[in-house]
Specification:
The structure holds three protein chains of three kinds. In chain B, 85% of the residues lie in helices and 0% in strands. Chain B is an all-alpha fold. In chain C, a hairpin with a 2-residue loop joins strand 1 and strand 2. Classes of the chains: A mainly beta, B mainly alpha, C alpha/beta.
Amino acid sequence: MRNLSKFLIVCTAYALVCLLGSPAVFGDTLKVCTTCKYHSVKEAVRQAKAGDIVLVDGGVYKESGIEITQPISLIGRNNPVIDGQNSGQIITIKSSNVKLEGFTVQNVAVSYMRDDAAIRVADRQNIQILNNTVLNTYFGIYLQNADNSVVKGNIVKGENTGKIESSLGNAIHVWRTDGAEISNNRVEGHRDGIYFEYVTNSQVHENISERNNRYGLHFMFSDGNVYTQNIFRENGAGVAVMYTRNIRMEHNTFEDNWGAAAYGLLLKDISQSVILNNTFRRNTTGIYMESSSRLDITSNDFDRNGWAIRLLSSCIQDTFRLNNFTGNSFDVSTNGSPTMNLFEHNYWDKYNGYDLDKDKVGDVPYRPVSLYSMLVERVPPSVMFMRSFMVDLMDSIERVLPSFIPESLVDERPSMKKIDHDSDRKLVQNLR
Amino acid sequence: MNKLIKYVLYDIVRNKIIVAYTLFLLLLSIGLFHLGGSPDKGLLSLLNLVLLTVPLISIVFGTTHFYNSYEFMELLVSQPIKRSKIFLSEYLGVSLSLSVAFGIGVGVPVLLFAPGATGLFLLLTGIFVTFIFVALAFLASVITRDKAKGIGIALLLWFYFALIYDGLVLFVLYSFGDYPLEKATLVLTALNPVDLGRVLVLLNLDVSAMMGYTGALYKSIFGSGWGIAIAFAVMVLWVLLPLLSARRVFQKRDL
Amino acid sequence: MIAIENLSKTYGKLTVLKDLTVHFEGGRVVSIIGPNGAGKTTMSKCILGMVLPDSGDIKFNGESVLRKYAYRSQFGYMPQIGRYPENMKIRQVIEMVRDIRKGAASIDEELIGLYGLKDMYDKRMGALSGGTKQKVSAALAFMFDPQVLILDEPTAGLDPISAEILKCKILKEKKKGKLILITSHIMSEVEEVADEVMCLMDGAVKFHETISGIKHHTNEERLSRAIAKIMNEED
């Protein structure tokens, strides 16, 4: 539905462009290469009129400060490289309806005052940034106030070895934008992989964000977005999303986010959202939830995380259904007694109840919060006693005679068998 | 000394218990690796069992062996040999044979199913725990002449290190939860060789065993070369302390 | 050869040796007698370093033996009840001790031959009768040609022929100038082999005299009577 409406919008836009300025449609092609009329991208772009195509052939162009002020297409053939040589921002798009495709853009120095990026769009709409490679820059692709823009198929790779967070920019940075599409990008080595602030009604899908110093995905105040089939891997602090409502996260993979303060997914003040069919694997914390309410967390896999879920007592009315919890050190931990949350039909590998009536639902409730997890929550150094015989004993006794763990956190109908989400997921993978 | 160890070893090997122990560990390890699914899971289950059974068997076997070798030691004491030599030969004989049993029983399956640094740490830990608990066994044995009492003390020691100590520490941690306890916990861990071994293996295991800020802190300590070196140095101390005090008592006691 | 000076030993509240001072010369067989619990075995064990005295000193050829071990190469010891590692064979026990005492000048295998131990070399110690174990103990004690032999109840458990063999061996070794200390309760035996009798009572020397001296002193022909007489006199 949404795609259809978008298609209509694009068509309308094209129709408008056709009507308003016919030269734009049948624009000229300005070629840039060593033997062409133009040797410099900057020069060609300056000469281009609305609707022109600037075609840049392979080679290294040592340029920066390229400003696109007309609705043109800047297309690279045979992988041209624009090397900014650390002399400021490289491409600034100051016109709507611009297409930028097929370049390698590299070397932008750190600039704390201007936030220099390889490619920046400022206050213009309908921009398409496709299949570029951005290497060794401060910010990678920076959209501000750029409604209905598409960032697709790009690789943004930073140099973060040995650097601290504050000297790094974000790979894809979007601010105050509506209806953006960020897809099939590969981002790594920056501060945040994908950064959204006040971004609404946007699509983020099939991106891979890994090895960023801080967050693989970071958004705030960005309502109504959909995140599907992304992979967030080995980011310094995982993924953090805050102060947002009405989002959907489906079929994403959060894995190998390890460290002192790393989360597969950190939810702070998130409400009325859906987290469906995701995989959380080998994270320090699978999902960390603070002040988050009315979330539907269904059909996810939590595998081999330190904590699968840390549910702080400020969370209310969250639903956890049909999830698989396997090989986690702690399934659920909490700092108090969160209320009105529902756990139902989840599979817990630590469950050792029975199913006499053979309805595939355990006859005894499962309490996913262990006494020891509460102790660790209260006294973090006690992690040192993990897997100690005493701890196992303590937990077993508490499970039989619960007296400390919160009464409300209980799965009354635990699933006896691991729930198969795989067929669903395989289908999705095939579609990719 | 080598000759004495040879005879002690011979005596132990003739004893079927050591063979049974090897087979027990072997079956256990192979079973756990098959059940566990992933090698890491197998290692984790194995770690738990190793840290429970190896100290128990070592301390009980060490104590009974000591009492059963009274005649042997009597025979030797009237010969021109230093007492400490007799004692150390007995000690090395027992700990070496138990270590070999452990090395075969656990080491071979680990090499087959989960080779790598963690497996190596598990083996080293097991061997250290063997040496430590045989030393504790000998200490228990020289304290009293009564075999039943000696085994009683040994079992109490095992119970203390395997169970009570952790309970006490957790209680202390809970009671003083409002204070920063990172360093204190580190020290408390070092005061129990079983805990030290467990942490050493866990922190080097590539699963989500240790987490969060504290986990990362400890991992940075125990994961570094220095941390590992210090941990093993503490283990060595854990061998030497009971062993040397037991030797002291043994040299002064009447046979 | 051996001088014991002011030796005291207590086990808890029980005083076993009380300021014991005694002196033994080489070339003599000394029989140590006394009631049960008088401290005979404790004294022997003190000499061998198996029991550490509370105070006093023991000198062997003028040198203190306390906390030393090398002097034991000049000692042979036959315990009252020989206890051996059950899993070892006779051969292994003998070889082991030989292994330990490698420096010994000469090896005396006479008793091994006389007792026919070689035929039983492959028997486990645990399977041996008390008497056979005693034979092994005796063989080991004499094997390294020591200057001092300490025999604790040597003939108890031995059959008469084996006991006779042992007695002959004792006399033979005495002639080589050795000191032989025997604790025994059998007076006829004492009379047969010993030159001197030392009687311990409550951890102190009751008397220490040559056999002829005792007989002369008490006007008795038989040693057992003579000793009984001394005992009674004291009461």
